[in-house]
Amino acid sequence: MSLHPVIERVTTRIAERSRDLRDDYLSRMEALRTRNPARARLSCGNLAHGFAAAGADKPLLRGARGGNIGIVTAYNDMLSAHQPMEHYPALIRAAARNAGGAAQVAGGVPAMCDGVTQGRDGMELSLFSRDTIA
Prior knowledge:
By secondary structure, the protein is mainly α. Helix content is 49%, strand content 10%.
């Protein structure tokens, strides 16, 4: 399947315009890939807290190799529009394992849906939560 000519031109322009920054980024990522994770320098107590509930990922996280992706989620049970996000952490964990790493939910962010708050007192707070996520 080929790209629409306009999409192809725009994509090419973006790639050319960002080539130097992207090359720098890729160089830094490659350098980091060859280093041990920062968790290797943690004390035993801090390290244990980091993977106490990690289940099958404990052996990987205990070692000094293998990446660990932090998942930050806005999922909540209150909004039907958020329901598809319920299973994302499990999908991300599986993908990380397939790539030789691990993934853990590192936290959530306040995320009230704009549609729920429109026309209500305090609705501007939903915009604040969106800014927090971004």
